[in-house]
Amino acid sequence: MSVTLPATETERSAQRAPVINDFSIQVATVNGSGSQTANLVLLRSIFQMGIPVSGKNLFPSNIAGLPTWYTIRANRRGYISRKKEIDFLVAMNPETAKEDVLSLEPGRAVVYDAPLNLQALRSDLVFYPVPFDKIVAEVCSEAKLRRLVKNMIYDGVLSHLLGIELGEMEKALAKQMGKKPKAMELNVGALEGGRKYAAEHLVKQDPYRVERMNQTTGQVLVEGNAAAAMGCMFAGVTVVAWYPITPSSSLPETLIGYMRQYRMDKETGKATFAIVQAEDEIAALGMVVGASWAGARAMTSTSGPGISLMSEFAGLSYYAEVPAVVFDIQRVGPSTGLPTRTAQSDLLFAAINSHGDTKHVLLLPASVTECYEMSMEAFDLAERLQTIIYVMSDLDLGMNTWMAEPFKYPEKPLDRGKVLDEAKLKELGTWGRYKDVDGDGIPWRTLPGTGMPAFFTRGSGHNEMAQYTERPDDYLKNLDRLARKFETAKTLVPAPIVQDVPGTKIGIIAFGSSHWAVEESRDQLREEANIQTSYLRVRAYPFTPDVHDFIRRYDRVYVVEQNRDGQMLSLLKMDGDPKFATRLRSVLHYNGLPIDARSVTDGLLEQERQT
Amino acid sequence: MSEAPTPAKKTNRIGLDVAPYRGSKTTLCAGCGHNAISERIIDAFFEMGVDPKHVVKFSGIGCSSKSPAYFLNPSHGFNSVHGRMPSVATGAMLANKNMLSIGVSGDGDTGAIGIGQFVHLMRRNLPLIYIIEDNGCYGLTKGQFSPTADLGSKAKNGVVNDLPPIDTCALAIQLGASFVARSFSGDKKQLLSVLKAAISHRGTSMIDVISPCVTFNDHEGSTKSYSYVKDHDEPLGEVSFVPYFEDISVDYEPGSTTAVKLHDGSQLYLRKIAPDYNPSDKVAAMRLLHETSRRNEFATGVIYIEPDKDDFIDLLNLVDQPLASLTVDQVRPPKAALDAIMESLR
User: Fold this and answer.
1) I want to staple A104 with a disulfide (CB 3.0 to 4.6 A). Which of A108, A587, B34, B101 is the partner?
2) CA-CA distance, A223 to A257, in Å (whole number)?
């Protein structure tokens, strides 16, 4: 039987059939009011009960005062993309409460701060008024601390209404609080206060409930930026240069924490790494290029505006053939755009970033696990290919909390690429910095201080021996070799994940964080509209031949992505056989919120109907 | 053996003759001050007996920035991006702190497009010899004004520069550079001494070298012309340098000479003109720069020095081995580390 009920059916069944482990909770608060602890406790306690869960923080570009929403989705089938509809609202913010309530579908539930009097707004919702100030006064005698624990009360209320075990909440709280007994005691008091109030005063009228499952055993909860930071550390990064920017900052900042713990001598404080907060993104990439040129494993992390500033160095890295690893935690643009909203809209820009004839390798992680693994691959690729590698994450993946199997310890040795040593020099006889002796477009490089022959690195015209030249034939030869190197990249980058379903004429292509909505949408299409789809998830640019083979196999290929102009589709068109370009269609989502399955399903069905 | 004896080549203390200190043939204009600076760099590194294989060379973009190709051929060099050489040099020094690094910039590359990176390089006191080949104009794009151009000077096309010049020495001192000097490309003796002292200094050595542009800025009225600098150079005194490996006595009269002991044990001697000038006094250095510039003169020599200041690499407390040469065992934490992190996320 189908367990994902269409909205209308949910409405009708609201009063009778319980909806178990399949709903979304949205908590609306004021930024800076300390709700993050309460929200993470809520998320973690559902996770600890074995129920697949995801959390998405929708926050403003502001320190305190503007509205913020945190959405938690529990889903027994394991769907962890954003759910478009909100089932259970916790309305704590007077400024947005009215609009939040008016935007709900009928039959949904609202817990709200009693003085807001929201029940007057609608008659088709379930309302649970809770006098938060009164309860907090009872559980916390110190007035100045009340603001900090008030949010924990809604966790207590939800514990009762949704059936989340209080013991799990306390365990999750202990994880958040660490060794702070007083804070722990106060918060547990608030939890219990909320639970008790709900038990005594609220009558359960909504259908949503949790029930213990075993779908999260052994798993971890982690943000993509933290996962990428781990990947960088285990890849053996030695130089990090960065400039603060949302939503990227938490990557280097988490990395600093890990590196101080695991890469610093406990007694002497001596470090096997240098992390520098640069004066801007230009300097950040400049330092990375300088460090990589001298033999370090170096990276930087930024977002779209930073990529813009790094463009000139990106071209230098490409043409002078210096490794660099750059994380782009994408956010909405253009210009400052919406700094705290997610997008996949730097794809095209990154692929050909810089002036002149450039094209770059992009890695496209879709999960926190891939953030970890592709970070390691990025360093190997950068040094193997002697060029800049972009890891294209986004705000949704980077800053939100995702479930994952524990990460695997890397078994592969580091690939430091073609670095000339005594033995190789002897074998080659003569060495030229930009000479393609292996036929793969990748020349041998030397590092300063190793005693190997020196060369003069320049972004201007150079021949095979790294000498300055303006000769047309030298320039042509060099550019053609770089193109050959890009062909070699196709054999090294992560291959796509392909799922061919026999009999269907429809294919879907997606990448990055869109993956989760596509997975769910494919089930919706099959279960609700009886449409089977095949699916290819792109994991890197340049595209391996499988990508174009996939397009050839299907009549209609929907490219799902989170930008306005279909950037992946454009790249596929640029790169592929023009004969098949007409098979490509776009399903786009670009309002700044993480993509959801319903939008994908609706977007695809609408075009199918017109076919 | 009956071969005629060939005259022995002059060698330095590591047994090299001057050849490996030379570079490729210059492509700059004949008479360009920058070529004279390259010659002095060759002399200084040769005389100091620095192994060229332990030197890295950097530059930005412009006439000046071409010059690292004209000295120290056996050293790795990096002609980077306009105004961004400091960041590239910083990265390279982080990767291999054992290298001796020299960067050549110009007045546009430093004072205009690169002023931001210049500022932060000085703040960090990165171990780097930073030379500005200062001719007050953009040569490679045919003579436009740079930020060190004279107030009121007139370009060939008639455009008048109505903005005051940036004094890169004053700026460097204010920002934290630990060795600040100004010299003139035509003053062989002083420039050589300054460069040798800079090689011995650990920290940023910022050297502004006035270097007339023979094509665009050597005309009458330019304060960066050969004739003007010759007439208006106010040397702070004679700069003498004694490397740590040469034990010679200096015949300066006590009281007229300041001796500064540098990082590697070498001695820098500054014979004073102004008897109360103290090169380790920031306030005195700033006063000197302001007073001479008010008279349209240049004070040349070592203007400021702080030999014992921690440099950027010291502050990072790196392991002794260069980061670039660390092996996988040194940079990949054990599986237990990953397990511990995973446990904390459950």
Assistant:
1) A108
2) 15
| Pairing state between β B204-210 and B137-138 | unpaired
Contact B324 A409 (CB under 8 A): no
Delimit the domains of chain B by residue range: 19-320
The model's pTM = 0.95
| Structure confidence at residue A13 (pLDDT) | 46
Q: How many inter-chain contacts (A to B, CB under 8 Å) are there?
A: 210
Q: Which residues of B197-214 are buried (b: 16+ CB within 10 A; e: fewer)?
A: bbbbbbbbbbbbbbbbbb
Instruction: Decide the pairing of beta strands A88-91 and B298-305.
Output: unpaired
Chain B from 280 to 339: CB within 8 A of any A CB: 316-320, 322-326, 328, 330-333, 335, 337-338
Tell me: cis bond preceding A60? Omega within 30 of 0 counts: no
Compute the residue count for chain A: 611
Alpha carbons B260 and B268: distance in angstroms, whole number? 5
To probe the interface with B, which of A262, A300, A416 has the most B CB atoms within 10 Å?
A262
Q: State how far the Cα of B239 lies from the Cα of B4, in Å rounded to an integer.
A: 42
Q: Distance from B71 to chain A by nearest Cα, in Å?
A: 11
| Confidence label for B242 from pLDDT (cuts 50, 70 and 90) | confident
pLDDT (0 to 100) of residue A279: 98
CATH 3.40.50.920 range(s) for chain A read 497-609
pLDDT band at A3 (very low <50, low <70, confident <90, very high): very low
Find which of B24, B66, B87, B124 to mutate to test the A interface (most A CBs within 10 Å of its CB): B87
The alpha-carbon gap from B257 to the nearest alpha carbon of chain A, in Å, equals: 38
- State chain A's mean pLDDT as an integer: 95
The nearest alpha carbon in chain B to A254 belongs to B341
pLDDT class for A10, splitting at 50, 70, 90?
very low
Residue A24: HSE in the Cβ half-sphere, 13 Å Cα cutoff: 22
Q: pLDDT confidence of A4, banded at 50, 70, 90?
A: very low
Residues from chain B contacting residue A171 (CB–CB below 8 Å): none
Per-residue pLDDT tens for A66-102? 899 999 999 999 999 999 999 999 999 999 999 999 9
* CATH ID of A497-609, from 3.20.20.370, 3.90.1300.10, 3.40.50.920, 3.40.390.10: 3.40.50.920
Beta A88-91 vs A109-113: how paired, if at all?
parallel
The listed CATH number (3.20.20.370, 3.20.20.70, 3.50.50.60, 3.40.50.970) that belongs to domain B19-320: 3.40.50.970
**Residue B22 contacts A where some CB pair is shorter than 8 Å:** no
Tens-place pLDDT, residues A482-530: 999 999 999 999 999 999 999 999 999 999 999 999 999 999 999 999 9
Quick one: pLDDT band at residue A5, thresholds 50, 70, 90?
very low
